[in-house]
Prior knowledge:
The chain has helices at residues 68-72, 82-102, 107-126, and strands at residues 2-6, 14-17, 22-25, 29-33, 36-40, 63-67, 76-78, 132-135, 146-150, 157-162, 166-170. By secondary structure, it is α+β, with helices and mostly antiparallel strands.
Amino acid sequence: MIIFKDAVTDSKDELLSDSFDYKEVDGVVYEADCAMIEIGAVDVDTGANASAEEADEGLEDSAQKVNNIVHSFRLQATSFDKASYGSYLKGYMKKVLAHLKAKNAPESDIDAFKKGAATFSKKVLSTFKDWEFYTGESMDVDGMVVLLNYREDGVTPYVVVWKHGLEEMKV
């Protein structure tokens, strides 16, 4: 299994893994479909019979619907207005670019990142109201912000992570 971690911060938050179906989009991001899952609501049968004189001693354990990727990687919801997200994105892209240069990425990869990131950033900003934002578990403000949106069907959620801002770890 491959776990993708935030490459540009010291936190090294885990953001995605190959156990989820993901695909590369525009050469700069990975998209992975999510699912809403139910957690909690464990029904445990102890085999004991409640006495006729006592009230039911069942435990209250309510189910909760959560996004499987957000839950699995303990992503933390955050919010931005359009201007602050644009400002964050500009700074984050500079960090990714510095990361690529530090690991001696080929100039062709750096150029492809610059072009693709600019295009995808414009796409996100033009549909800003449709996106939800999540930080890694450490809530490091310098780290990657994971994007969440819904497919055209309006039901299927998917996350977007910046490909060049990830570090692969095989486990």
